[in-house]
Amino acid sequence: xxxxxxxxxxxxxxxxxxxxxxxxxxxxxxxxxxxxxxxxxxxxxxxxxxxxxxxxxxxxxxxxxxxxxxxxxxxxxxxxxxxxxxxxxxxxxxxxxxxxxxxxxxxxxxxxxxxxxxxxxxxxxxxxxxxxxxxxxxxxxxxxxxxxxxxxxxxxxxxxxxxxxxxxxxxxxxxxxxxxxxxxxxxxxxxxxxxxxxxxxxxxxxxxxxxxxxxxxxxxxxxxxxxxxxxxxxxxxxxxxxxxxxxxxxxxxxxxxxxxxxxxxxxxxxxxxxxxxxxxxxxxxxxxxxxxxxxxxxxxxxxxxxxxxxxxxxxxxxxxxxxxxxxxxxxxxxxxxxxxxxxxxxxxxxxxxxxxxxxxxxxxxxxxxxxxxxxxxxxxxxxxxxxxxxxxxxxxxxxxxxxxxxxxxxxxxxxxxxxxxxxxxxxxxxxxxxxxxxxxxxxxxxxxxxxxx
Length: 453
Fold this sequence. Notes:
rod-shaped, Heat Shock Protein 90, alpha+beta, single chain, Beta-Lactamase, 3 domains, 5-stranded antiparallel sheet, 5-stranded mixed sheet
């Protein structure tokens, strides 16, 4: 996919969004897990703190002592990470767990005696960070009165290690979720862009003649675009129809004056004014070439790809016209065209193409012209054969060139076969010439394709 691809842009946007969402999810989950661990530790340390408070008693020698130490064996293991400490503020007596060994916790001062649990972070043995719960209480008179601070601490590294292990365990799960989200993004993008692919397919069908309009079978977001394109096609078709109409008017308006001028040229030539006739003939031929070229361009600007034309009807109309000419009257016509055969080409274009071929054949034939049409699978061929002299093999390509003339005696502009080539090319067909010995065979070939119902 190229950088300008909409699919690539959507996938990159989805990938970036997924990465950001997973990063935020990972951060949020680790924070929530850390708070959960702290709450569990708070609950456990609160139990120990309540046990220490409940087991305080007056010491015989004065001050206070602990009747029973909490049962957790970690309080008896040196530097185990779990510690307790009690400070009698009036006497300065300090009671502490064996796990502190020869260390003493620097308990934060508590300004109020509120019997509430306060959370702190302090530095403990071996400079370890400790998570501390502390309560400042007022002792009853039976214990000598005064105040005491009771604290229980937990090595904060255990919390950090638990959070880190949770993050390590969470990473593969997030990676799997990320992969699934990327796959889902690919599916969403593919489904979301499918209407655009349908538009492209439909436009290709319009170009090939299998369809005329995009239609309205698209989602709501794409339907306005389809309507705009259909309106544009309608406007273009209307403009082309007007252009073809103007081209037809121009043809009718110029052909008669050119024919009159050609008659006058022939009259001048017969009267001995050959130089004038030659000059006028050159000018007339140039005018004919220009007019026919522009008319052909206007007609072939955008053919209707869905057109179908009866071959027999088109050929019959052309033959009737040519038979009225001097060349057509003297010839025998052999026509072998199936009645139900149709070709994928506009009727006027087929008549124009076959008219040029038949007129050329009538001009060069000696006695007869044979016209045949056949369907061979998906291919339709139309052939026009005369019994004239044919064309030297080395000049067949020259005969198809626009303006190419192998016989300078005629009055044509030398565009007939070239115009036929333009017509059949615009409809996806081909024109081929071959010598028939005697004569020449011109063949039009068209490939047919299944039409949409």
